[in-house]
Amino acid sequence: MSALENLPAESLRTDEAENMESEGVIGKLAGWIDRADPGSRAALSRLDPDAMRPHQMAALSRALIGAGLSPENWHPATWKQWALIAHGMALAGHRKGSLGNQFAEAGVSEARVTKLLVSRGDAFLQIVPRLLRLLVSKQVRPNWYAFGALIRHNDSEDSHEQAKVEALRLHIAGQYFSALSRKAT
Fold this sequence. Notes:
The structure is a single chain. By secondary structure, the protein is mainly alpha-helical. The protein has a single domain, classed as CRISPR-associated protein Cse2 (Peroxidase, domain 1). The chain is 73% helix and 0% strand. It has 11 helices and no strands. It has helices at 3-6, 9-12, 16-35, 38-45, 54-66, 76-92, 99-105, 110-118, 121-137, 144-153, 159-184. It is globular and about 50 Å long.
């Protein structure tokens, strides 16, 4: 029996205050990036979360602080997660909507979506930039509320967070496969 099956249905619902806070930060970050000067935006879109250059670190720090985050005491993994989110927003943009539908709209293969949703750790973090480049090439802007949550909580050690991210993965898969089936008919 999975951790997901052991939790009552109420615990699978995202805590409303936490969800609103996360959405607020994601929205502020997207807004900051949209309004950023061309140099900062370029630094973020060229950013490699594994090997940030000084000007990219400066642009990322300004963006995160502008979004209301306090990164001064973060662990390297947290920096990497937020760097990937900011990089993705600068590269692909942000649009509300169903992330699964957006993957289907971009023509992302079933294999690639499945690989994204079952991968963990560094394997997951390596898949995301490739998927972002595909979305950009198809001119599909992803929903960073969902994508950001997937990135930030992918490797959570907290069982409640694990259950929430697992529910998110299943939700994205359901949206994606439903969209594919609608396209086929």
